[in-house]
Design goal:
CATH architecture of the largest domain: 3-Layer(aba) Sandwich
CATH class of the largest domain: Alpha Beta
Radius of gyration: 38 Å
Number of strands: 6
Structural class: alpha/beta
Largest sheet: 6 strands, parallel
Number of domains: 2
Strand content: 5-15%
Strand order of the largest sheet: 3-2-1-4-5-6
CATH topology of the largest domain: Rossmann fold
Shape: rod-shaped
Order of helices and strands: HEHEHEHEHEHEHHH
Length: 279
């Protein structure tokens, strides 16, 4: 039996690791080792349709097998493959190097005798999506053909998912670090003027207290002593302002903007009342 491959190139296939159909396609391609060998898909289900499309993009010769030859022919046309009834495939299977099954029914689709006929052409890979199984695992073992079932696919999907998470962990950490830096920068930009006003308020309060003291109890100080006192007051004011300013920068990353605006408004109002009372 001659086969025709799909029209698209391998570069057009975009696998998404972890999904069953992509895992199946990878298993088939690994088994074929880069050779364009025929693959059979048994059953016309959403899963076999998606697998057929992926494998056709790899230009693999496809054989669509189904109880209803008409349904098999319909899918075969969409993937440039050939069609065969399930009964004919069981009785005289052509040479295929992988078989993907996802057919309904409570009984095995391929029994031990059919598997033995398949093996005459080599050692095909059996990938069984059936629930219950389309191929009895013990029958496959006795015949000596490799079978991958749903439990194997689920375990492989979980392993690939874990591998992807581990591979992406450094990228995620770098993104998180960058986002934190960006949030800090945006928060500083948003509240920067308020923080500058608060720092200036500390320095103004200290300067005003020094001016008052120099006009009264410290009026006997000479110019050099006055300068030293003013510089000391400015340094102390900046250091006292550092702690609340650092806390407000950190809070800006987590607090609601309205809460911070209320804080700065209350601080400004409190200072205005203090200035009024002092005058």
């Amino acid at each position: 039996m001659a086969f025709a491959g799909g029209a698209e190139t391998a570069e057009q296939t975009h696998f998404q690791p972890g999904r069953p159909r992509e895992l199946v396609s990878r298993q088939v391609l690994k088994h074929l080792g880069g050779r364009k060998l025929p693959v059979a898909l048994v059953g016309v289900s959403p899963m076999t349709r998606r697998c057929a499309n992926l494998l056709a993009r790899q230009e693999l010769p496809l054989l669509i097998v189904n109880r209803s030859p008409e349904a098999a022919a319909e899918l075969a046309r969409t993937v440039a493959g050939q069609a065969l009834s399930l009964e004919a495939f069981r009785r005289a299977p052509p040479e295929v190097h992988a078989v993907v099954l996802a057919a309904g029914g409570g009984e095995p689709v391929l029994d031990e005798a059919a598997l033995s006929r398949l093996k005459r052409h080599g050692a095909p890979l059996i990938i069984d999506f059936g629930v219950p199984a389309n191929v009895d695992p013990e029958a496959a073992r006795r015949v000596g053909v490799a079978r991958i079932g749903m439990s194997d696919l689920i375990a492989a999907a979980q392993q690939r998912r874990l591998g992807e998470l581990m591979r992406l962990a450094p990228v995620r950490a770098a993104i998180d670090e960058r986002l934190t830096h960006l949030r800090t920068e945006l928060a500083t930009r948003a509240f920067g003027p308020h923080l500058a006003d608060l720092r200036q308020a500390f320095e103004q309060i200290a300067a005003a207290e020094v001016t008052r003291a120099l006009a009264h109890e410290l009026r006997t100080l000479d110019d050099e002593e006055r300068g030293q006192l003013q510089r000391l007051a400015s340094t102390v004011a900046r250091r006292l302002a550092h702690l609340p300013l650092a806390g407000l920068r950190a809070a800006a990353l987590h607090a609601e903007p309205d809460a911070l605006e209320a804080f700065f408004a209350a601080a400004k109002g409190g200072r205005a009342r203090t200035d009024t009372e002092e005058t």
